[in-house]
Amino acid sequence: MQSIFESQYKEIRDLVSKFSDSEVAPLANAIDHDAKIPETLISKLFENGFMGSYVPEEFGGAGMDYASYAVIVEEISRGCASTGVLISAHTSLCIWPILNFGTTEQKKKFLPGLASAGVIGCFCLSEPNAGSDPGGLATFAEDKGDFFEISGVKNWITNGRDAGVAIVMAKTTKTNDHKGITAFIVETRSEGFKVQKLEDKLGIKGSSTAQIWLDKVKVPKENVLGVIGKGFGVALSTLDGGRIGIASQAVGIAEAAFRYAKNYSKQRVQFGKPISELQAVQFMLADMSTKLSASRLLVMNASFLKDNGMSYSKEAAQAKVFASESCMWITTKAIQVLGGNGFSKEYPVERHFRDAKITEIYEGTSEIQRIVIAANELKEI
After folding, report:
1. Average pLDDT over residues 356-365
2. Which of 77, 103, 92 minimizes the C-alpha distance to 21?
3. pLDDT-derived band of residue 6, with 50, 70 and 90 as boundaries?
4. Which of 79, 155, 236, 340 is most buried, judging by how many CB atoms fall within 10 Å of its CB?
C-alpha cells in the first residue's frame, strides 16, 4: 500500500525512475572508476529539467515543487550517487539561496543558466579550519567602494571543479563568531578564483570535490546575496533545504542496495534452497525495508512543510540523520546478504556502501543534526 506522499508523486517518480535505469545506472561503475560524470549525461539532466526542478518557468525552470525535487534526487541517486549529489548541491545549495534571497535582477541574471542552460552551481562555506563551526571563517571580503575583494580558501566544495556560479560565504567584518558573514554570488571565471586541488575520496568519486582558492576576487556589490553582514542566516536556511537533498540521496543509495540484496537472495542457493528462505536473511530484508519506508516518509514530510511555507528545520534534520544512518546500516546489511561477493567490486553493493558513508557527514554531520533537533525540541514556546 502506498502512502499519500507516494501516490501523489507517482508520475514524477516513474518518469525519473525510467531515466535513471536507462541513462544513469549503466554508467555508474564507469563514473566511480573514472571519477567523473560524462558531459553527455549532465546535458541530459539539464534537458530533462532535473537541474532546475523547482525553479519557476519564468526563470527557465520546470516549475515543480520541492517534494518533486526530493524524488528526483532519490531516483537519480539510486542509479548513481555521484550524479545525485551533483543535482542536490547544484539545486539546493546554489539555486535555492538565489531564488529565496536574491533580487529580481539577480534571479534574471543567474537562474536561467543554472536551471536549463548548462551552468553548474556550488556552495562555498567550509574552510580548512571551519567545518561544523562557520563562525571560524577566515575568508574575508574587503569593501573597495564599487566592489568587494574576496580572499580565502574553501574546502570540500561539491561541484567545485565544474561550477560556473558559486555562493561564497565571507566575512565583511573581522569577528571571532558568525556575525559579519555575508553571502556573495561569484562567477567562477573571475580572475583570482582557482580550483587548487581535487579530493580523492572513499565514495561518490564521480562528484568533483575541490579546494578553492580566492585571491583578491573582485565581486560587484550587486552580487551581494541578501543583506551585508546577514550571510549566516542565508547559510543556515540554505543548509536546512540541503539536508532534505542529502536525505533523499541516502534513500536512493539505500534503495539500490536493498533491491540488489533482495534479488540476490532469491537466486543464491545454499543448503539446497534460496537464501531468501532463511529467516536470518528475511529478518535483515524486513528491517531494511522498514528503515527505507520510514526514511522516505521523513524526507517527504520535511519537503511538504517546506513547500507549504511552514517551519521545517527540525524535520529536515530528522530526515537527514535518520535516512543517512539507515543508509549506512542498509548498505552494510546488503553486503552481509551477499557474503563474500558483497566485498567484491564485481557487485554494486560495495560501491553503495562506500557512497553511503558521506551522507552521515556532509550538509552537517549526524551530531550536528542531533544538536539542531534537540535545540528545536527544547526552545521556549
Report:
1. 96
2. 77
3. low
4. 79
Q: Are 306 and 241 in contact (CB under 8 A)?
A: yes
- Looking at 181, 216, 232, the residue that finishes a domain is 232
- The grid coordinates of residue 228 equal 551585508
DSSP string computed for 134-168 = GGG---EEEE-SSEEEEEEEEEEEETTTT-SEEEE
* Positions marked active-site: 363
Query: Smallest Cα–Cα separation from 175: which of 135, 119, 115, 132?
Result: 135
- Domain of 227, CATH number, reads 2.40.110.10
Annotate 345-368 with b (16+ C-beta within 10 A) or e (fewer): eebbbbbbbbbbbbbbbbbbbbeb
| Whether 285 contacts 337, CB under 8 Å | yes
Give the C-alpha distances (Å, rounded to integers) separating 211 from 93, 154, 196, 285, 365.
17, 6, 6, 40, 19
Q: Domain end: 102, 119, 136, which one?
A: 119
CA–CA–CA angle 264, 267, 271 (5° rounding): 110
> Rounded to whole angstroms, how far apart are CA atoms 318 and 314?
6
Q: Return d(Cα 137, Cα 176) in angstroms, integer.
A: 8
pLDDT in tens, 157-187: 999 999 999 999 999 998 777 789 999 999 9
Closest CA to 163 of 98, 94, 112, 101: 94
Residue recorded with cell 573514472:
34
**pTM assigned to the model:** 0.96
